[in-house]
Each structure stands twice: as C-alpha cells, then as structure tokens.
Amino acid sequence: MGAAAPQVHQGRAREVRAARRLRLAGSDPGRLRHSRRSRASGVTGATRTEDGAVLTRRSSRRIDALQEVADGVFFSRGRGSNWVLLRDGRELTLIDAGYPADAAQVAGDVRSLAGGIAGLRAVLLTHGHIDHVGALPGLLRHRAVPVHAHPAEIPHLHGEVHDQAGPLDVLRNLTLPHMPSWLAMVLRSGGTTPVHLTGATALPTTGMLDLPGAPEPVLVAGHTRGHAAYLLREPGVLVTGDALVTGHPLSRLHGPQMLPEFFAHDPQQALEQLEVLTTLPAELILPGHGPAWRGSPRAAVEIVRQRS
C-alpha cells in the first residue's frame, strides 16, 4: 500500500468543463441509475425529500445496494457509513471503505464493477476514522493497492496522531438520541479495532488525479486535521466524507448537517471550512453518512449554517 501517489491529470480541465456543459444540456436532474446488483437486491427506486435528500427504498430495510448515481459514479451504504466507487472501463477508484465488518460488502462492490480486486487502481480516503478505513485490511489482504489521503491526514493514518472520538467523549454524550443502539452497531461492526495504514501516501493537493473518475482532492479540515472532499467535475458530483453529511443515527435532522461535535478534532474549524465547498461546481453531494443529496454545495452549506 506504499506506492507512489497518483499524478495530477494535466490538460483535462477544459475538456471536463465542455463535457459537463453537454451533459447538463441533455440530462434529467432527477434521474438516478441503479446497477444490476441494486435491482437484483430489491431496490425499488428513489424519492426526494423536501430538503432535497435522495432516498432509496429497499423494502423498508437497511439500505446497502450499490447505486449508480451519475455516469461511472457508484454510491454504496454500509452498516454505518458510505463509500464511493468511480469506474472507467474495468478500472476503479474507491473512496473510503466503511467499518471492518463492511469488508465483504466493499469487496462485493469491487467485484461487481471490475470483476475483482485486480481492477482497483487506488483507494482514496476522506479521513482516517475507523468507519471510513475499517474494511481496508480485509479488502487488501491478498493484493496491495495504493492508499492515498491528503498530506495532513497521513500522520493520522499512520497512527502517529489520534483524531478519533474516545470512550470519554461517548460518555459525555450518552443523552444523544439512539446512543445505545448506535454503540451496539459500532461494536458489532468492529468499530473499536485499531487500523493503522502505515503504507498510505500523500496525494497532490491540487488538480485532478490521474485515476478513474479524475477525482480532485479539496482540503476541508476540522473533522480531522487533513479531512478531504473529492470533486468530480465532469459528472458534477462532490464526495464530502464527514465534512458535511445528510444524516446520522445520533441526529434527529434530515438533509445537510454537521455530525455531532464530539466526533470532530476542531468543531469550529469544521464549520468555518464549509466555505471552501460553496464555490465547487456540483449538483449532487455524496456524504459519508446519510443518503445522497441533490443540490449545490452552496445550498447545502446554507442549510447547515441555518441549523448551526
């Protein structure tokens, strides 16, 4: 997992802007496509709530279907967090990887889109919390795949610093709604397992990466010191990780919101850094927790600010 970082994709910005204009001219903004796996597993469609959230229905049970939300962009919801796969032909980029107990589901997603782990070019991480990196040791046990994150997040991934909520933080917040059931889920999912990705390497901090989906890292610090979002310019999609979410078991809110403050390394910085997202050209937000949300980052941030 210690391969060199991907290079910035030179010369694509103009092509992407032109392609995006063509796509927008002929697109249906309300349309969400489902993979064959989604249809087979019983997903019956998607609805949009009043606040813009795109909600899938799976016979009123937990949502874990792999869903194609834009051309070559796949969104998957695990036990307690989400991940994203970007496909170009038979090659993939994986963004985040759920809890340790999500390893089989993540591997199944990779297999369904690329035939197996050999098609996985790289793993990009929004940050190093266990619910976003937990499946990687299991997923990459038999094949090394490069794992990358923002330079400021590398010490966290290597285990040199600790930006994760601990037992005392949980005890101070026992009155939050659904805390017992959330804690039970965390324990079942391997959420107390330490995962140190000592081979993770730093990404370039600007420009599109030469990887499937041409993701562009954007530093949005606060949740952790090196938390990154990933902009996909051509389909107009923003992967926000935990910088901005649309739901969580410990929250009664629906739609754009911040996670409870005790999860953040610096809650005030996390709120202030949302300004970085407001100028990004996207129409669909894929959060680290909660359903996909259709709307601009500026609109989402405005909702968060009104609630904060």
UniProtKB/TrEMBL annotation:
Region of interest (Disordered), residue spans: 24-53
Keyword 4Fe-4S assigned: no
Pfam families: Lactamase_B
Highest taxon above the source species: Bacteria
Every Metallo-beta-lactamase domain range: 80-289
Gene3D superfamilies: Ribonuclease Z/Hydroxyacylglutathione hydrolase-like
Keywords per UniProt: Hydrolase
Record GO terms (molecular function): hydrolase activity
PANTHER family associated with the record: METALLO-BETA-LACTAMASE DOMAIN-CONTAINING, METALLO-BETA-LACTAMASE SUPERFAMILY PROTEIN
Protein name according to UniProt: MBL fold metallo-hydrolase
Species for this entry: Brachybacterium endophyticum
